[in-house]
Every structure is written in structure tokens, then in C-alpha cells.
């Protein structure tokens, strides 16, 4: 399409509401328009970029053996009461009532719904393992939305959920998602650093957060220049290291900088590591495990 016929509302001045560089540039380049606090419209250029990101994510999820589905955004409160998380989730959850006065909610995540789908159709252990994912808009009523689309109230999220026969199978599914995320970041030209993280209200006993070093953030990371001899999880089906992607070969070891975030979230730091000066880090994506279940945030 000709540029003269393209909808590209470029701004000459920096918007006052933009706090960080990425937010300012996306507004000035005509990629997004802010509708309210934490709410954005993706304009044609921004939508093209978003579609490319989704394509990379889909390709890597399919490569890891996950199957795509699509679940509704509005969920029944009964499912959440059954799991015990309806009240626990707090004020971030947007609760509504339909015209019949039934309690509904705008889903902040989809563990309950995907589990209800699974229990309705899977009847035999022969149907396992199974990994389902979808890419869908979510809403979380953040107290202080900021940093543009990085911490907004309404956002597009990929979440995957695995169902496995035993703990070893669940760990294998987690490891496949771990490698899939590393591939995804590498293809996007991003150097993501994995860290052990808190599982939060979703629960589980294993969680990693992938961060991108940046000058503006809300978390401080401490790095060390010594190597960390901790292998990246490898798929048990292949027992091979990840092959090269379009952005070049992936490492077979974690980054050579031991990273620690406050409070207490740590990428393993061997005894004797010398810690360098702290640097800022921006949380880009995180994953959580619930019996082999993975969800990015």
C-alpha cells in the first residue's frame, strides 16, 4: 500500500504520559494510541508488529508439541469458586454479572477453564501427555499501570497448559517450554536472562522469569562475571541441545552472568562468584509450573 494512503498518525512531540523510551517511540511512530490508563489501541503499524510476534510464538509452541485452542474471555465464577481462587485472586480480577444475575469474570488467566475442558473429554491415560495453549486478550486491574504496553491492564498473552502422567513428565513439559521461550527470544533478537521467580497466586513449585536488561525498570538485578555451570533443560525425547534458529545458534549453557533479583529471586550463583555492580532489569515474560502447567505473564 502507498504511504499516502496508509493510516500512520505520527506525533512530533513526546507525549507527557509516556514514561519510558519504548512507550514514547510507539506513540510517536503511530503504532499505538492510549485510550485510558493501561488500555491501548494497536494501530495498523503496531498491529503488523504484534502479528509478527504472535507468528513467532505460535511457530515455537507448535515446534514444542503444544496444540492451539481458543477459550472465551468471559468465564463463569463457579469454576473459580470450585478451585478456591475466586476470592484469593484479589481486586485485580474484574468481576461482573450478566442479565440473569449470574457471577461472571473477565479471565485474568485460564487454568480453571482449560482444566474443565480436559476433564470433560480425556478419559484414559493413553490420551496423555497433552499440552494446550492459546493466545488471548487478558485483563488485570493493575493498581498502577505503567511503562506503556509492558504493564498494562489489558494485554495479549500466550498461556500453555500441560497435562502429564507423573512428575517426571511434568518436568519434561516444563523444560520444553523453557527451551521454546529461549528460541522465541532469540528469534526476536532479544537477550533474555532466565531467573528463578516466585510462583505468586497461581501456585506451583517451579517458576522462571525471563528478563531483558534495560535502563528503566521496577526491579534491580545483580550480575556476576563468573560462569554458571547450570545446563539449560533439554527435551527428554531428543536428549539433544536446541538446534540453531534463524537468529543463530542457541547457547547450551545459561548466560555467563549470575543474575539475582530482589527480593530473593535468583538464577543459581555458585559459591565464590564475585558480584558486579547492580543493573536495572525489565521483566518481559515469566512462566510458572503447576504440576507441569506453564503460563506466561
The assigned structural class equals: alpha+beta
Q: What is the percentage of strand-forming residues? A: 25-35%
Strands in their spatial order, largest beta sheet: 9-10-14-11-12-13
* Average pLDDT score: 77
Question: Largest sheet, described in full?
Answer: 6 strands, antiparallel
Helix percent band: 10-25%
Low-confidence regions: 234-297
How would you sum up the global shape?
globular
What is Rg? 20 Å
Query: What is the number of helical segments per DSSP (H or I, 4+ residues)?
Result: 5
Q: What's the order of the H and E elements?
A: HEEHEEHEEHEEHEEEEEE
Number of beta strands: 14
Span between termini:
35 Å
Please supply descriptive tags for the structure shown above.
single chain; 297 residues; alpha+beta; six-stranded antiparallel beta sheet; three-stranded mixed beta sheet; 14 strands; 23% helix; globular; disordered C terminus
What can you tell me about this protein's structure?
Strand 12 and strand 13 (265-266) form a beta hairpin. The radius of gyration is 20 Å and the shape is globular. The protein is α+β, with helices and mostly antiparallel strands. Helix 2 runs antiparallel to helix 5. 23% of the residues lie in helices and 27% in strands. It contains five helices and 14 strands. It has a six-stranded antiparallel beta sheet, with no helix packed on it. A three-stranded mixed beta sheet has the order 3-7-8, with helices on both faces. A three-stranded antiparallel beta sheet has the order 4-6-5. The two termini are 35 Å apart.
